[in-house]
Amino acid sequence: MKNKFLKQSSLLLFCSTLLLSCKSDIDVDVSELTIDSIKTELVEPNMSNEAEIAYSVPTPNELFDIIKNQNVELNIELVNDIANKDIYVDTKSRAINFGIYSADIGYMSCFEHNLEFLKYSKVIEELGSELGISDVFDEELMARIENNEGNSDSLFIISNDTYFNSYQYLEENNKGNELALIISGGFIESLYIITNLAGDYSENNPIIEKIGGQKIVLENIIDFCSTYMDEEAISEIMIDLDDLGQVYEANMDFIEENSSITTENDIVTLNGGGYFAMNEKAFIAVKEKITEIRTKLTQK
Predict the structure, then answer these.
(1) What CA dihedral angle connects 245, 99, 57 and 259, to 10 degrees?
(2) Which residues pair with 254 in a beta bridge?
């Protein structure tokens, strides 16, 4: 089975997309099947006998984009201290914290915190070199960062591009283990920051709604990591991710809806069925669990 990443600019696709293509006699479109406004879609079958799963890249920037239009202030205490970089001496901790620091610069770019952005970019460059992906951090990239200091929109794009380019490089060079750890680290840090920015629980808080939506993203990441679970480092991080998933499952409300199947032009569409909804108990439980996991991974 092959794993392939797709770069998506859409916030909806970031939070949702698990694209599955496999050998089949009919085309199935479940793009209308929604869970917390999150879509899972089956795409055209390929001509190969080999099943291929393509996951969208969960860039932290696309999750942080929601805070731009909310009345949220920067809390610099939420990012991982760059002084911790020197305690990450093995591949697992370096890869996980590469993802964590990448999420941090995505967060800081939302608030135009450009000086720290530059410092954190250099730490990520050092970790990238230690992970064998120094080619991603060429002179052109670092010049882009330095030349755009003071332009938060450009820095937001640069951090997003760097994150994706690192994924692509790792995938193309058969570094799936590191890739799985980076994805996990980026997701964990993003969720940790967002839960701590959300404030008190309220039903119509869009940030808390988005936290509920991360349940599906988490499931997709666990599915991807399972490809490499024979590696001890991956199996260890999967325990943490699975624990978080169980917290979601145990505390969220499942709202049942009637499901229907329609056919048009040989396309079968599945609609409804139900969705998971956040509540105050689930929000508090997720916040506590993600803080526990993140603290363990950053403090080593």
Answers:
(1) 10
(2) 276
**142-148 contacts at long range (C-beta below 8 A, 24 or more positions apart):** 145/117, 145/118, 145/121, 146/118
Residues 6+ apart with CB under 8 A from 261: 268, 269, 270, 271
Q: Which helix (H) or strand (E) holds 284?
A: helix 280-299
Q: Would the pLDDT of 9 be above 60? A: no
Residues 114-166 pLDDT 10s: 778 889 999 999 999 999 988 888 788 878 877 776 666 678 888 888 888 88
pLDDT band at 186 (very low <50, low <70, confident <90, very high): very high
Work out the burial of residue 128: count CB atoms within 10 Å of its CB; fewer than 13 is exposed, 13-18 middle, 19 or more buried: buried
Quick: pLDDT tens for 229-242.
Answer: 999 999 999 999 99
Place of tokens 């991982």: 80
> Is the pTM higher than 0.90?
no
| pLDDT, position 136 | 85
Cα(138)–Cα(199) distance, integer angstroms: 39
Whether residue 65 contacts residue 265, with contact meaning beta carbons closer than 8 Å, is answered with no
Dist. CA 241–CA 127, nearest whole Å: 23
Query: Which one, of 103, 114, 18, 14, lies nearest residue 60 by Cα?
Result: 103
pLDDT given for residue 157 in this prediction? 84
Classify 51 in phi/psi space as left (phi over 0), alpha (psi -120 to 50) or beta: beta
What pLDDT is stored for residue 297 in this prediction? 97
Two tokens, residue 4: 């392939």
Q: Can you give the length of the chain in residues?
A: 300
